[in-house]
Amino acid sequence: MSMQSIDFNSGNYKEYAINGDENRVIRINVSDVGIITRIQDAMSKADNIAEEVSEREKNEDRTQLLKEYDQRAREMVNDIFGSDVCTAALGSVNVFSMASNGKPVLVNFLEALLAVVVQEIKSAQTATQIKLEEKAEKYIAPVVAQPAVNVAELSDEDKKALLRELLK
Predict the structure, then answer these.
(1) Which of 17, 68, 136, 143 is least enclosed by beta carbons within 10 angstroms?
(2) CA 94 to CA 81: how far, in whole Å?
(3) Is residue 72 a part of any domain in this protein?
(4) pLDDT one-digit tens code per residue, 42-84
(5) What is the number of domains present in the chain?
(6) In the beta sheet, which residues pair with residue 53?
């Protein structure tokens, strides 16, 4: 007997190739409104981890520390998405390895990711606004097409009736 499925639209998923390599793809729900906060939190935690490593390496083996923190950071990033994106995005490189711009590769990835997600959210908001305007136009156009009422030409009784209607 097969398991029953609950099917529903759970968001707008998009796939992205990492640095143009279609063998390294991550899948992101760009409609997840909590993702920006989780990315920003991860960036802040990554900075804290880097500081913690600097402090602990004075008394501990740096190689072991970097391995430990690499694993912690990967878990933190994967928690953003609820799946393993670090393997596709960063491969086996330690996430605290410095890139040519002087930043850890993890920070570069999170910054690039944040820019993409913010742009996707803005695009979705624009598309939603356009759809709402189109739907609203259907109801607004007939009202706007009617000639405006010249209130000065109304009798006192008609003005009171109009006021009662407006105050309903």
Answers:
(1) 143
(2) 19
(3) yes
(4) 878 877 877 887 788 888 888 888 899 899 999 999 998 889 9
(5) 1
(6) none
Q: DSSP character for 10? A: -
Burial of residue 14, with CB atoms counted within 10 A of its CB: 0-12 exposed, 13-18 middle, 19 or more buried? middle
The parent domain of residue 94 ranges over 13-126
Residue 144 lies in a domain: no
Q: What is the DSSP letter of 104?
A: B
What single-letter amino acid sits at 99?
Answer: A
Strands 21-29 and 13-18: antiparallel
Among positive and negative, which fits the CA dihedral 114, 45, 61, 84? negative
Give me the pLDDT at residue 85, please. 93
pLDDT score, position 144: 66
In a domain, 46, yes or no: yes
